[in-house]
Amino acid sequence: MSELRKDPIVDRWVIISDAAVRTPTIPKEGVFPSLGPVCPFCPGNEYLCPPEILGNRPEDSQPNDARWRLRVVPNRSPILVVEEDLKRMGEGLYDKISGIGANEVIIETPRHDVRQSQMEQSELENVFWAYRDRVIDLKRDMRMRFVVIYKNYGRLAGATLDHQYSLLMGLPIVPRGVLEELEGAKKHYDYKERCVYCDIVRQEIQQEIRVVSETKDFLAIEPFAPRLPFETWILPKRHTPCYEDIEPREIREIALIFKEVITRLDLALNYPAYNYVIHTSPFHQSCETYYHWHMEILPRLTFLTGFEWASDLYINTTSPEDAAAFLKEIII
User: pLDDT tens digits, residue range 7-24?
Assistant: First the structure.
């Protein structure tokens, strides 16, 4: 089985997978591996997926039948598995953990060959509700410490199918990048007694130069120090550390502002590949005063080079001010 191993120098966890070795390939955008004439995520092909964990479907339909609006299923090739026992082990100075975790696939819509910018707002609301419901369920598993909610769209972003889907991974550890974000937020709070994300929201609304869109409850911005061109954040105005505490009104609004942002990115950047991730607080960790959940969208317009890998210092050729101005000029 897989296992998690910790680098003893920088405290970075990695997953050592027991999956078969794959031959590296150079992906071409828009070209997906052939799976024959059948898409496993299309209605009628439910037998190609593991039994569903959650289904948004009409009341008179049955689990795993073809009448659904959204489905959540286990990943058929999981990296981590929930069926294993959590074992913490040492090997001299090295630490490792058994490969326990959750691998889930959110099949976002029955419609094939549709981008998220073309989905109805109600379909996107279903997606954000599914994220919430699955986080709440996984939080009950005391082996889990953190959940990653993310999406890969397009081969350059790591997608393997062209049907709209996103992913969720429950982890028995809190990744180093998350710990660094928490530490930075706490340092700001300890010094100023304010949430840094709330400060960002207030300053960006005041300055306006990096704002892409705004609703009553959310703000979409190009962050001040973006890693990649047109990196976009969506931040709730209400301070809360946990995505799973999102309210019904906020579900409607995040679907609305997300659809606008992703439509602007599609039209401005000629329908790019992209990733996004929802940053939420670790399970069972008290960070209510200083952390603030949010969403980060990363269009895949450039490749990382050896410099970025070696230094963790990103080179971005598009300023966030220019990116915001360009996106706001797009007519949708």
Answer: 887 888 988 887 654 444
Instruction: Report the predicted TM-score, pTM, of the whole model to 2 decimal places.
Output: 0.92
HEC letters along the chain? CCEEEECCCCCCEEEECCCCCCCCCCCCCCCCCCECECCCCCCCCHHHCCCCCEEECCCCCCCCCCCCCEEEEECCCCCCECCCCCCEEEECCEEEEECECEEEEEECCCCCCCCHHHCCHHHHHHHHHHHHHHHHHHHCCCCCCEEEEEEEECHHHCCCCCCCEEEEEEECCCCHHHHHHHHHHHHHHHHHCCCHHHHHHHHHHHHCCCEEEECCCEEEECCCCCCCCCCEEEEECCCCCCHHHCCHHHHHHHHHHHHHHHHHHHHHHCCCCEEEEEECCCCCCCCCCCCCCEEEEEECCCCCCHHHHHHCCCCCCCCHHHHHHHHHHCCC
Confidence (pLDDT) at 32: 43
Which CATH code fits 3-22+31-176? 3.30.428.10
Domain positions in the chain: 3-22+31-176, 179-329
